[in-house]
Design brief:
Blueprint lengths: L1 H16 L8 E3 L7 E3 L11 E5 L5 E5 L18 E6 L7 E10 L4 H11 L4 E8 L4 E10 L2 H12 L4 E7 L3
Parallel strand pairs: 2-4
Antiparallel strand pairs: 1-5, 3-4, 3-5, 6-8, 6-9, 7-8
């Protein structure tokens, strides 16, 4: 039974290491060759301060350090040993999705103006929804593809310059 269990664990390890989710762009202190995934609760991007959480059977989950699911004081967490230091390394050439919420005045052509500015930056819009708030303003939620936090800041700055845009905020989850 022990040999069978060891074989299953070895096969699981091989599956994780060879998984398409293994990422070279993140370094986790003290751990090599492990499945790394990005938490959907905070959607970290290169440039964010990050921390890893060793899950049970699902590798390491990377969170932003200011994520609501990360304890303020790791030493007082119920299982502090499962939290590990993580950092971005500069070798990552991946693209990441980031969620934005745009608050704007409602006007004809606003979506066209936003789309033109984003396309001019060669940024893809992956998801888009809009609705009118009770006060007559428009709320636009969109997901865009960016390389890192600085890239996202540039996208936000470009959108903020558009006539009628009142506020652009990064959202934690997609």
């Amino acid at each position: 039974i022990r040999t069978e269990l060891a074989l299953q664990q070895s096969q699981e390890y091989d599956r994780i290491v060879n998984s398409k989710f293994f990422l070279e762009g993140v370094t986790v202190e003290g751990i090599d060759d492990m499945l790394i995934k990005f938490s959907k609760c905070c959607n970290p991007l290169p440039g964010d301060n990050i921390i890893g959480f060793i899950t049970r059977g699902h590798g390491i989950s990377i969170h932003k350090k200011d994520c609501p699911n990360v304890p303020k004081d790791i030493s007082k967490a119920s299982e502090p040993e499962r939290w590990v230091n993580a950092s971005w390394n500069n070798s990552s050439k991946q693209e990441f999705r980031a969620a934005l919420q745009i608050t704007s005045l409602s006007r004809i052509g606003l979506m066209a103006d936003i789309s033109v500015q984003i396309a001019a930056m060669r940024v893809n819009i992956n998801d888009l929804s809009t609705r009118e708030a009770k006060d007559g303003r428009s709320l636009i939620n969109m997901t865009v593809t960016v390389n890192n936090v600085e890239h996202l800041k540039n996208v936000i700055a470009r959108i903020e310059k558009i006539n009628g845009v009142l506020l652009v905020e990064r959202q934690n989850s997609i």
